[in-house]
Amino acid sequence: VGVIKTEPTTPRDMARPDRLTYYRDIPRMAKRYRKVMLAMPGCPWNCSYCSSSSGFIRKLFGVVAHRNYYLSRRPIEHVIDEALEIIKYPTKEIEWVDDDVFSGINVETWLVNFVEIWKREINLPLYVSTTSVSVLRASDKVIRTLKQIVNVVGLGIQAIRPESLKLFNRQWDSEEKMKAAYDRLRSFGYSVNLQCIVGLPVIDPIEDALDTIKGMQRIGAGSICSCYPLQIYPSSAIKRYCDGRVKLNSDCSGDTNTGITGINFTESTQRVLRNICKLATLFVKYNISEEWMRALIYIDFNDETSKKLSMARYKECVVDRLKEDGSRIFQEIAETTNVRY
Q1: d(CA 180, CA 11)
Q2: What are the residue boundaries of the Radical SAM core domain, all occurrences included (predicted)?
């Protein structure tokens, strides 16, 4: 397997998706209420589970290219032009897939200018992602300004145990920082989606996962959350760590939505971890006690029940993001969606 290596220039030269062809060929995506965009192609962090981490990108292209291309943002006019194409199709919100919306070399000026233009030209709510450290570093001005166009912030928790954070190369984070960042976002009126990863290559993956869920309850009980099984991607540091230590799961396709773990745990452990992913929103939003959590994660759900749980979680997330319109939009989704897991 080879790597195609093209020297980056600046985000101004970034190719724009051919949405006309994409939506023509996949009409369901054209009609989907949620579309995807990005402004900054790179990430400042070097997480071990990511195959496009900052360390890997710097190794491929160098420090200068990483800073000037990957951590810079596209010209605002390019982003707006792309959004104007998108809103020709039925769209209720934009998922902003920048890895960390409050990071980057020009965040304070770019975001403030962008918000005013976006409100005037597009006026759709955004779902964005960030980290605790970036939230705590950002100025009040940029956090207050971004709130005008953002409906929910995804806050990357990933793990709670210090040794698990270290395994993810996120030892710069801690529960204390996560809690402080969560409280700061809430003080500005943001809804928050807490994001985590379970199924780590540790001795007790189920207990590690429960520690993460309990930590998210301490950080932000009442908020929705997204809990995913660890995927072992090529070129990632976690892949190198796993080699020779654990067996990888040949049934894992790399799709987190399946709930299938990247590591080949026992069948019973995989089932429990999948249940934790499915039930995490219930556990965190409604602050379920540890006793009830431990009882529920060991239930062997049949396919019909499993799919109903998936749709219940889906509805919680849609309503949390879109508020009054969420229930109606979810009903439209439910009528046209074939749930697989």
Answers
A1: 32
A2: 29-264
